[in-house]
Amino acid sequence: MRTSALPPTRGTLSWLLQLAYSTLRLFGQNGLKNHAAATAFYFLLSATPLLLLLSYALQLLGHIAENSAPATILMAALYDQMQLESLTALGFIPRQAQLTAGGVGLATLVLSSRGLVNAVQGAFRIIFADQSKRNMVVSWVLPLVILPVLFLLMGVAALAQTTLSFLAENDFIGLGSAQGLQTLNTLLAFAMVWGLLFAAYWRLPLRHPRARDAAIFSFAATVSMALLLVVFGAFFKLENFLSLYGALGSVVFVLIGAFFAFLLLYLWAQALYAYGKADIDALEKLFLGRSGEGANKLEAYVFGDLNRLLERYGEIHPAGHTLIEEGDDSRTAYFLYAGRAAVYKHTEDGLRRLGELKEGQLFGEMAYLLNEQRTASVVAATEITVLALPPQIMEELMLHSAPIARRIIDTLCQRLERMNLASPT
């Protein structure tokens, strides 16, 4: 007889607390603040394509403006709303739209673009730990494809927003129509950012997470970045940086904004990884916490609610139930959460009791580790509650936690030694 262990749960709050704790702990361990700073630096260097594109567009618009009054007004609005004159004066936009203008060369452009993509890929390799290597062709071609698309989308969104604002302010279209179009443009920009983040969260990890999970976490990251943009616009002013740092104020302004944006990018990526390892993390704390190894008060509080694990993996069996039958081919391992069980083995003299399992013990892992049939039977001495762990969970636990791997190997060695002593010579 098998019954599912389904005690009442404290709800989503406990799970969110565990996810937040694991995310922040891993975020600090992986040093992702440093990766965000490095990525922001490469982003600043790689902004050259956008600025050159703006330069080309402005020159083209200038030629059109010579014979068109609306184009002249639009060009003035672009300069005013996007502060292009300040960027040109500070050297961010070259006055001559040539590849060598402003000291920018093709080699610098390619290397900085590759550096940006490599910085992001390097951070994702740390977040989603994997020793595999990407295809060399992909790693070289990817920067040349991603950045032009990224900057083109950013430029189109900014230009559309500016154009709509200009048309509304000068009564070229009705105010209601302008507001509706601006809302639509804002949603489109949000969707573009979400799409880029979704592609990064889903495809950059070599072991791709589920598309649904990547979509949810990329949406959360997009919302966070939108809020960051609002807060940044309210509390950080370019004029303050220019007065404090002089000509370098614009560089510092862009670096700080990019740093916080990439910080959020990596924070939500780390949360996506922690979400995929939520059960593994909780099981690790459960196994190690029973003996006090690696436990502390904060972890004991955060991971104190075990109902989610019991709901997912828990089984309740009555006294006398044979949980593991000697000679079986099953590979499931068990953690004895409550109750007692006895271990038996068939010998030439009949059925022999080898010992007793108590609460907090992991058993049944020998068949998984040695890939062989069950070497003994386990029978419930009292009503027992166990966590049934399939082979893939055991594999993740062994890879995820060195202390658990050591404990399992140590337990296995002791068990083999006892069985050798119990066997007739």
If you had to describe this structure to a student in words, what would you say it looks like?
By secondary structure, this protein is of the alpha+beta class. The chain has 2 domains: 3-11 and 280-422, Jelly Rolls (Sandwich), CATH 2.60.120.10; 31-276, no CATH class. 65% of the residues lie in helices and 10% in strands. It has helices at residues 12-29, 32-46, 48-65, 69-81, 84-89, 106-127, 136-169, 175-203, 211-235, 238-245, 249-276, 278-289, 297-302, 307-313, 365-370, 391-400, 402-422, and strands spanning 3-4, 314-317, 322-324, 333-338, 341-347, 350-357, 362-363, 377-380, 384-389. The strands form 2 sheets. The chain has a 5-stranded antiparallel β-sheet. The protein has a 4-stranded antiparallel β-sheet with strand order 3-8-5-6, with no helix packed on it. A hairpin with a 2-residue loop joins β5 (341-347) and β6. The longest helix is centred in the middle third of the chain and has 34 residues, at 136-169. The two termini are 38 Å apart.
Please name the defining characteristics of this protein.
single chain, 425 residues, alpha+beta, Jelly Rolls, 2 domains, elongated
